[in-house]
């Protein structure tokens, strides 16, 4: 996808967040000097935009410290976009595929519908383009349609997919896929998981069983555990990160649907609170709609910059 195209998709996806923020800033900062009152209003605004209390207060304190020479709404917007980019920079980390682990085992987790299976397809597409061999494992055996969905992606992308019948043990799928990836000297194994289980205890037991099965083959596996978050869910993303971190050793995040009606503020709050790497973002449903997470672009899009 062309560079400008994905930025405009993300900017459009973040339009709801950015027009709230940008409009609010225009109302608060009318060119007079920045004082306690305007700063408090800004803090409120940032909190309502999902940035969370502690992140909002840090941003505002930083803004006050910087004593900007430009108290206009545009000046504040630019500064905030930069501050947000600064906050996001440490977590913007591409996935390290050049690992000593071969096959590199990547487990993809998340609540239902966040985009796990599609993200696996996107990752597979990118890896294939880099001439890496990939095996997909249909570890969501909970629904027949989930197995079929991954199988179809595999066909489209020309990637082998290890499947078992619906209802099969996901841990066995993961284990066998790992064995197959080893036997075929595959570079990367991407394992899909179910997001839709009867209850949290179910999900916990199943994910832990899967990681345990992989560890039998290599105690360091899975080498990456990626939590996929849907950017349109807003505040609930906090609970999702918390829950999954309690279940498995989440190593990084992928934030999808930033082209939808995203609630971008929460991404900044998550970065601040958990410090987990954000490896990539989803900006559409197609195989090439996965982008590196660029903190400057995100900051500008969230504040409604045009370019
Ligand atoms: N607009 C947009 N849609 C996406 C993106 N990623 C995934 N989707 C769509 O979101 C829907 C759910 O995606 P899946 O990949 O099936 O999600 P999942 O997490 O595997 O879902 P379950 O297996 O049911 O838990 C599909 O319609 C995808 O096409 C994205 O970045 N942008
Ligand atoms: Mg799925």
Return residue spans where pLDDT drops below 50 for at least 5 consecutive residues.
none
Helix proportion range: 40-55%
> Mind telling me the C-alpha Rg?
21 Å
N-to-C SSE string, H for helix and E for strand: HHHHHEHEHEHEHEHEHEEH
Mean pLDDT: 92
Q: What general form does the structure show?
A: elongated
Broad structural category: alpha/beta
Strand order in the largest sheet: 3-2-4-1-5-6-7-8
The number of helical elements comes to 12
- Largest sheet features: 8 strands, mixed
State the end-to-end CA separation.
17 Å
Q: State the total count of DSSP E strands.
A: 8
- Kindly estimate the percentage of residues that lie in beta strands according to DSSP: 5-15%
Bound molecules: guanosine-5'-triphosphate, magnesium ion
Architecture overview:
The protein is elongated. Helix content is 51%, strand content 11%. The mean pLDDT is 92. Strand 5, helix 10 and strand 6 form a beta-alpha-beta unit. It is built from twelve helices and eight strands. It has an eight-stranded mixed β-sheet with strand order 3-2-4-1-5-6-7-8, with helices on both faces. Helix 6 runs parallel beside helix 7. It starts with a helix and ends in a 5-residue tail after the last helix. The longest helix is centred in the last third of the chain and has 18 residues. The protein is α/β, with parallel strands linked by helices and 307 residues long.
């Amino acid at each position: 996808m062309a560079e400008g195209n994905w930025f405009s998709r993300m900017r459009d996806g973040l339009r709801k967040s950015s027009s709230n923020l940008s409009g609010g800033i225009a109302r608060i900062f009318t060119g007079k000097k920045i004082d306690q009152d305007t700063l408090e209003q800004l803090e409120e605004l940032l909190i309502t935009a999902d940035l969370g209390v502690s992140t909002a207060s840090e941003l505002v304190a930083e803004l006050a410290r910087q004593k900007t020479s430009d108290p206009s709404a545009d000046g504040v917007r630019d500064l905030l976009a930069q501050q947000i980019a600064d906050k996001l920079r440490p977590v913007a980390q591409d996935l390290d595929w050049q690992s000593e682990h071969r096959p590199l085992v990547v487990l993809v987790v998340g609540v239902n519908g966040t985009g796990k299976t599609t993200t696996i397809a996107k990752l597979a597409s990118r890896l294939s383009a880099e001439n890496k061999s990939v095996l997909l494992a249909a570890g969501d055996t909970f629904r027949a349609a989930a197995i079929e969905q991954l199988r179809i992606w595999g066909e489209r992308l020309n990637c082998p997919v290890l499947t078992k019948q619906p209802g099969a043990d996901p841990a066995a799928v993961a284990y066998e896929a790992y064995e197959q990836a080893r036997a075929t000297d595959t570079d990367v194994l991407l394992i899909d998981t179910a997001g839709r289980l009867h209850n949290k205890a179910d999900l916990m037991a199943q994910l832990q069983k899967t990681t345990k099965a992989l560890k039998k083959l290599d105690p360091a596996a899975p080498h990456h555990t990626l939590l996929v978050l849907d950017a349109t869910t807003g505040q609930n993303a906090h609970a999702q990160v918390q829950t999954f971190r309690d279940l498995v050793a989440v190593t990084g995040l992928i934030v999808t649907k930033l082209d939808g009606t995203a609630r971008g503020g929460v991404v900044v709050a998550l970065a601040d609170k958990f410090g987990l790497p954000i490896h990539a973002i989803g900006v559409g449903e197609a195989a090439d709609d996965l982008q590196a997470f660029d903190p400057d672009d995100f900051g500008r899009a969230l504040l409604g910059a045009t370019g």
